[in-house]
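Homework-ish question, so no full write-ups if that breaks the rules, but can someone show me the predicted structure for this set?
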Amino acid sequence: MLKGMMKTKLFWPIIVLILILVINLFFDRSFFSIELRNGHLTGSLIDILNRGAPLILISIGMTLVIATKGIDLSVGSIIAMSGAIGAMTVADTASEGSGPLWMAIGLSLIICLVVGGWNGLLVSRVGVQPIVATLILMVAGRGIAQLITGGQITTVYYEPYSFIGGGYLLTLPFSVFIVAFVFLMAVLLTRKTALGLFIESVGSNADASRLAGINSKNIMLMVYMFSGLCAGVAGLILSSNVMSADGNNAGLWFELDAILAVVIGGTSLMGGRFYLMGTVIGALIIQSLTTTIYSIGVPAETNLVVKALVVLVVCLLQSAEFRRKVFGIGKVKPTGEQKGREGVTLS
Amino acid sequence: GSTDESSGNGENTDNGTEQTAEDTKPEETNSDTEEKESDDQSAEKLVIGFSQVGAESEWRTANTKSIQNAIKDAGHELKFSDAQQKQENQIKAIRSFITQKVDAIVFSPVVETGFETVLREAKDAGIPVFLVDRAVDVDDDSLWVTFLGSDFVEEGRKAGNWLVEEMADQEGPVNIVELQGTVGSAPAIDRKQGFEEIVSKEDKFEIIKSQTGDFTRAKGKEVMEAFLKSDGENIDVLYSHNYDMAIGAIQAIEEYGLKPGEDIKIIGVDAVRGAFEAMADGKMNVTIECNPLFGPQLVELIEKHAAGGEIEKRIAVEESMYTMDQAEELLPTRKY
Amino acid sequence: MAQQLAKLEMKNIVKEFPGVKALSDVQLSLYPGEVHALMGENGAGKSTLIKVLTGVYSIDQGTVTLEGKQVSINSPLKAQELGISTVYQEVNLCSNLSVTENIFIGREIKKYGRLAWKEMNQHAEKLLERLQLNIDVTKLLSSYSVAIQQMVAIARALNVSAKILILDEPTSSLDRDEVQQLFAVMRQLKKDGLAIVFVSHFLDQIYEITDRLTVLRNGEWIGEYKTEAIDRMELVSKMIGKDLAELEAISSKTTDISQSDTLESMLQANEVGLNGKISPFDLELRKGEIYGLAGLLGSGRTEMARVLFGADKADKGKMTINGKDVHFTTPRSAILNKIGFCSENRKTEGIIPELTVRENMILAIQSVYGWFRYLSRAKQMKIAEEYIQLLNIRPANPEQLIKNLSGGNQQKVMLARWLVTNPDLLILDEPTRGIDIGAKTEIMKLMTHLSKENKSILFISSEIEEILRTCDRIAVLRDRKKVQEFDNDRELTQQDLMKEMAGGM
Amino acid sequence: MINRLSLDYKQLPLVATISLFVLMFSFGSLRYTGFFSTQVFLNLFINNAFLIVIAVGMTFVIVSGGIDLSVGSVIALTSMVTASLTMEAQLSPFIVVPISLLVGTVLGVIQGALIHFYNLQPFIVTLAGMFLARGLSYMISVETIAIDHPFFNFMANSQIPVPGGNFISISVVIALIVVFIAMFVAHFTKFGRNVYAIGGSEQSAMLMGLPVARTKILIYTLSGFCASLAGLIFTFYMLSGYGLHANGMELDTIAAVVIGGTLLTGGAGYVAGSVVGVLILGIIQTIIVFEGTLSSWWTKIAIGALLLLFIVLQRVIVWRSEKKHANG
Ligand SMILES: Nc1ncnc2c1ncn2[C@@H]1O[C@H](COP(=O)(O)OP(=O)(O)OP(=O)(O)O)[C@@H](O)[C@H]1O
Ligand SMILES: Nc1ncnc2c1ncn2[C@@H]1O[C@H](COP(=O)(O)OP(=O)(O)OP(=O)(O)O)[C@@H](O)[C@H]1O
Ligand SMILES: [Mg+2]
Ligand SMILES: [Mg+2]
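A: Not a homework solution, just the prediction itself:
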């Protein structure tokens, strides 16, 4: 039953993803080909995975936040911060030892945890509305990042640092492994323990959850910390990939793409059920869309229009009402009751 | 408040970047011991309002520093406001400069248009306005004293000309890919225009792909990767609207397995220090200077005007163009 | 009235939900000036029939004829325009609006092109007067108890010149007096020639007010009867579909009082209170006793329960459990002390709508285990199936989303959630709300069973006889104050209690 | 009217916000010379007239439990349409103004319809709307178009004097009119109350037989219209059309509305509150400009800090008096 639902949830996003990829085929015959160049698997698909890594990461974090009826606008700034911290810690080390690397990773991840926790505290303890609570960091975070880099775009000359976002392992980009790891952790933590259940129940009805003995405050705190952590990792990948820290532009507007990915993946902004796999697919859709726009030579000024249309199509395809009206798929559904403000759900 | 603000700059120095190190001390003294200073300063201590676009690029930060330091070193009082890339903020800032009755307003417009009203208010309040970096298109040029800054279109032309010479003996087609700046931003539009103006004269040149990289390294790299995927070896030239995108692109090219500077000729704008490093190790062929360090030049103008001197409406920042072979010896001399 | 032409005819109504056939070939006919009961177990299809009639759900098959001509009602708005006024099962009002607004929204009074709040407030007060309820109508609805919200919903329904009035379990959270007020009004409307549909699980009420009744079972139409022509036994057998013999067991009202033998105290509260909610009270609960709270609407029973459970933090007094001091700041701390609390407000404080029946059931026990020790899927299934079986929850599918269950079935799931935790003290606030007779007796049995196992139960109910029947001791609350405590020996009568509740005149 | 009796409780966030605004203003006045002047206060309105107008529209959307991210881009699009029609097509303002007001309105209708009939999430639909509007304005032209036309110059430059030698702009008057109309609509029309009802519980609203569909579509239409009107005001303010205008302003708007005491979950909020919210953001800006020494990152940090300070204070005030309310 649940599996069945998951399927329907994932069905349309997957279709769209395939569609976008196939479109590329018309412009570039070799689009799906993957070859082994000097020990690295290369090919558009690999690139999409590789480039998409940061987005997938923050989307995973965002999914849990949204499942609790929350939202995290600060991820973009956190990316900038963690990148800045990471890069600055290794900026003026010329050594080849991996010591500074761990230093950088440790430092920025810890800080990102703290920062995420800060969001969590504002939301769960002070009771600030998520969008505003995280808006604060969205603004201030970039400032802090620039403060760290002194407004410069600091270039890193420390080779090992490039491994995080640029390195290869077993012929695959290392970032792919990072994503896989985080994703698995998230799935294990939420589905093999009761966390997932608690998150969903808090998101679906916080009062009732409290009366059922769930410590909803801590749950919220946790998801925001996790989101912060994910953003931190993403930040490291991004900054390591270009071997520099850019406080002002790193991760700019990522938050919107992340939220988009989550919703495309079938998780409702009204909280409750969440679908990590869906999110990943959503993120991949967005990334392959971007790559497509670049590689098929869409004029720069029309990028946004194209994006808008695709987003609309995905959402419409997911809307049961739309499918019924247009293709007449699916039985007639109750007009009211089920159709709360839950948005795109097929349940 | 100003106290935590200066201490903040303290932190800033810990993070070790010369520019901030330089300007911290004067700034602190400035904010702490104003009156005393003004006593020392016999006459002529001007209050100057400076409204900067933001800190969107390395170039911009350097520019800000240069102007800030120049003003303070000359012992004038600085009122700085950062518009966070928003025109409305900039207008607000200028308004409040007017209400604060500063002696001169310096600002680099976010865009050329839309400042007429507020400039008129400034004029009515009898405050001279100095435009830096970007012009405003207002018919009534009595609204500002002078415009000091680079000519983006000219930069584009320089890039084009260099390419034309470079490729003179090569018969086409020469496939060019272009990394634009942020869509709609003045430098992006003008640098594109100037460049196309030149290369379009010869039809062996073809701009096969042109996409925005938002002036950032990450985007520049991502876009270049996509270009390489679709057009690979038959890309001959990369024209990048700024240095950061060029660096990103260079990384992409290397990862793709080509030699930047040889397999693909690379033209970048902004002769920042990094650009020279890149050229020094042969990864970039030419960089067109767009000089941000005209602070002192500006302050002179302001003082001159305050003293009642005549100033012409358009003052170009002296800029030039540097190629690979010059890079080595010039590298040490680059300030930023 | 039979020769009159029917005001409303519903024929061969079919309604399916994914996986559930809620209505198959159901019919209903209403005549002017009658009160018509819809009878059936939980999940029989009563509410669905009503929602189909009022256009909340679209009809899969069947016809609706209103005063002779066929109509298609596709939205509640349309239904209202056709003169059908409805009170749905759950309180369906906007708690963020004032009482007045809730009564008038959609048909506001205007004056010089703007809404005339003064007039509306006055009207609202008059309307509630009619139900003997005088409350501040400008206050937010959310500041009132479910019971009052229910009354407001009724007032709203009365506020239109309707031809047909539909009341889906309006009495489930009301107590005797309110019910009488409601009936008085209904009789009045009946005289005026309205046709009234009335749903309730209380047979007494059915026999008191209704003229005819239609029985549904598992979404099927069983029959239509004159109320006085069919006796309880027969009616119940029609509803549950068992023959009279089997029923004797259930119906035998002698679920005798489980006189607890031990006097060992389990929970002790002295001078516990919460400013503005409930004035300080002493309370001792013994092991293995069922302790009843009786009181009128708003008397503070729920508050007392919530304070004991830590849902509201007590601001004075101290509590001990099995001798050791406790101070509950959150429900969690209470639960960890093996206390359970089944709220009276199922919709907002009970169900987790987006989750399945299974997940809703195991929520409390899981929160005791903590997030790390996740019950295995198998265990969860076992629990779910066990209680679905025990309380006969329909549809018997653990993976059905709870929001798709009928009201009564949701209530059963809530009970299951707490029974699973096997608490030492179980606080039940109106646990039998909207539950059918079969399940009700089942729950009574469970309670006595628990008390036999030396567990204690705090039982709140608006049905005095229910309390009298099951409780060892009974406290009476009035105006947020504990005013009396009775030992429930044979002499204690309803009258005694009622006097005390009303304020012993 | 309706709220009078329970004012203390229901309007609490609003009261808190206003008092905090006063607090901030006096802080500025004490700290900076020339801050405490009527003109500084009036400038808050002059500089934020457009923000006030979108905030009004946004208030309705958020109260109904939705959200509208497209407003910022609609401003850009409107300014672009206005500019190109005036300067390139050489049309008269009497044609241009109505057309540009239609831009957002139409987009609003479409968004509303999508959200309601296909049961899509407002956040996403309006996000798409945001991309679309900005994309379209780029497609009109990536370059900025300066407007030089007597009508627009008049709207931009004419100053309406107010007692004490100060002045306001025409846009301010427009904005204030919008605010008053909105207040009336919110509290004294059926539509207004339906919005609150839907925000409280869409399902209940539907069961109560309220015209949910119509209302929801109307809400987004209204918001779209306000966005366009704001776009027009913005165009007066800037005398130019530009694809990058009002970048990210949707967030400022949402912040203003929420600061003004409106719940993002819907059902509660006041137009007046949103106006104060805008003023709060404005005054934060002003304070920073007057501080006049903040580097661009310290500016960002300062904005965040002030925002935080404000929100926490607001929470505290609300808490304390909620306690009082409970005990009273
Ligand atoms: N939206 C829905 N989706 C799926 N199934 C539903 C939905 N609504 C009701 N049902 C099913 O239809 C059947 C009838 O439900 P209904 O609410 O009509 O019962 P009822 O007679 O009102 O019971 P109660 O006395 O408990 O209110 C139940 O089995 C319920 O599970
Ligand atoms: N007559 C009334 N006037 C004003 N407020 C009331 C009234 N009755 C109840 N309330 C409100 O409803 C809330 C809940 O009351 P409570 O539920 O404790 O009463 P109760 O004894 O449980 O009756 P019921 O459970 O039938 O509602 C109280 O906090 C009170 O604010
Ligand atoms: Mg029912
Ligand atoms: Mg109660």
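Now go work out the reasoning yourself. Hint: Residues 176-191 of chain C form the longest helix (16 residues).
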